[in-house]
Amino acid sequence: xxxxxxxxxxxxxxxxxxxxxxxxxxxxxxxxxxxxxxxxxxxxxxxxxxxxxxxxxxxxxxxxxxxxxxxxxxxxxxxxxxxxxxxxxxxxxxxxxxxxxxxxxxxxxxxxxxxxxxxxxxxxxxxxxxxxxxxxxxxxxxxxxxxxxxxxxxxxxxxxxxxxxxxxxxxxxxxxxxxxxxxxxxxxxxxxxxxxxxxxxxxxxxxxxxxxxxxxxxxxxxxxxxxxxxxxxxxxxxxxxxxxxxxxxxxxxxx
Amino acid sequence: xxxxxxxxxxxxxxxxxxxxxxxxxxxxxxxxxxxxxxxxxxxxxxxxxxxxxxxxxxxxxxxxxxxxxxxxxxxxxxxxxxxxxxxxxxxxxxxxxxxxxxxxxxxxxxxxxxxxxxxxxxxxxxxxxxxxxxxxxxxxxxxxxxxxxxxxxxxxxxxxx
Lengths: 255, 161
Known about the structure:
The complex is a heterodimer.
Chain A: E1 27-29, E2 32-33, E3 36-37, E4 40-41, H1 42-59, H2 69-89, H3 97-113, H4 126-148, H5 166-178, H6 180-213, H7 215-252
Antiparallel strand pairs in A: 1-4, 2-3
Helix pairs in contact in A: 1-3, 2-3, 2-7, 3-7, 4-6, 4-7, 6-7
Chain B: H1 9-142, H2 148-160
């Protein structure tokens, strides 16, 4: 794996562009927090930018009876998530609305801001998406046990199944439950990383093929950029939907 | 692959917690109550307006019904008044006509009587005059006096025929 020493992107070679270089973490301010490395990195900077961007979008709008443009955007986001939660969780999910909304807006802003050239995509790092997914997983599990006590374990025992098959199915259900945070985090991380890597590779082709041949990969890049913007939204939505489904399992225990 | 450099995990996680909690607090304390409040306010305003419009519509319907009833009543009343007036007028006209007819009949009878009387008187006078004239003529022609009674008798005989 790449180490700090190499500078693969910097170009004496010119055409040797490392598509993974864009994901590198650079420490901007070295900080320590109780023995842990808490340096302010380029990832931290973009996290702060995400918070600022979301806050700007949702707080700088007016709060009038007839909304302006910015206020409409905020209300659109609010109602989008509120309707999605009502569809999946019913009225019992009201308490988790701020969390799911924050999660959706954070991931959406991270994915969208990552589309800006020379920016950094926070969600292209597995540790970040895993941190979010683990929070959702642990939160849903704790809520499930608080709401249903030991009865929450019934989630692993499917009803209406022959007794012979039951041990096997319990094992499968348990594995599928514990792989939830992994699938949730890897889905987002892999989508972001693959998309950005692909854009970088095609961008390298544009440069390598020059003025004559470079138009073909450039056209591909334009199409890919559109696709990536769609993916950026879709992955944020999928993350929020799956969070709601896991919360629904914990609260209503539909099975 | 920079994603698997474990040394970058702790700063990323720490800053993820800081920024995510910050965003959560900002959303749950400030942004969402504000947006939700506006949406709720708008919905209740719309519901209120629809209610007000509905009640106004009901009032209008009631007013229209009352107006139509009043109109129907007035029309019926006008009809009766007209009928009554027509009846009274008819009766009056009838009475007047009967009176006038009676008067006319009376006058005609009176006039006929007067005519008859005048006629008899005239007839009487005519006989008298005829008698006188006849007597005068006879006396002038004959030169003899003739009695009045004879003349009257002769005239009566001639007129009687």
